[in-house]
Fold this protein.
Amino acid sequence: MSIWSRNDDKLFENALVLYPENIADRFQLITDYVPGKSIDDITTHYDDLVHDVFEIDSGRIEFPGYTDDDSGRVELEGDSGRVELEGDSGRVSAERKKGTPWTEEEHRLFLIGLEKYGKGDWRSISRNVVVSRTPTQVASHAQKYFIRQQAMKKERKRSSIHDITTAVDTNTVPPQSSLQNQRGTQNFNFAQ
């Protein structure tokens, strides 16, 4: 087992980007790119990386808190946009993109997951039922859903995906009577 410096890791990561999975002799090309490492070192390091990513994605271990370079600046990009963290200063700047609206199918799956796993187990709902959404997105959707349910008890505004309360809801959800002339009814039909 060889020792990997931060520079070796950086070269390895760059080589993974330069030589994607579909390239023939990928690991030989990566070995040529990272000096002082054998093909066995490269494949073992790659297998370790894949295992670590799986463990992080499955929630078994925390995301590591190391920096990418000597400046202490880390850039992360994900579903909600790009985030830059600046060293020990704690400054965070974020470019946030607007979320993608939930589809009726995703909401129906959310309701099934809510029934199966209960309120608060957003990770299980995300991993096992609404696999197209992250646990954070499921939690946010749930928050809006429960707020909508409380608001409906008081006064209904306009129809929303959050008006669907069961996975097999086939009822037509009419808008508020004062809006009747502006728009028709909306049918949320999930019958297959």
Summary: The longest helix spans residues 135-154. The two ends are 56 Å apart (CA to CA). The chain has a mean pLDDT of 74. The beta strands are 73-78, 81-86, 91-96, 172-173, 186-187.
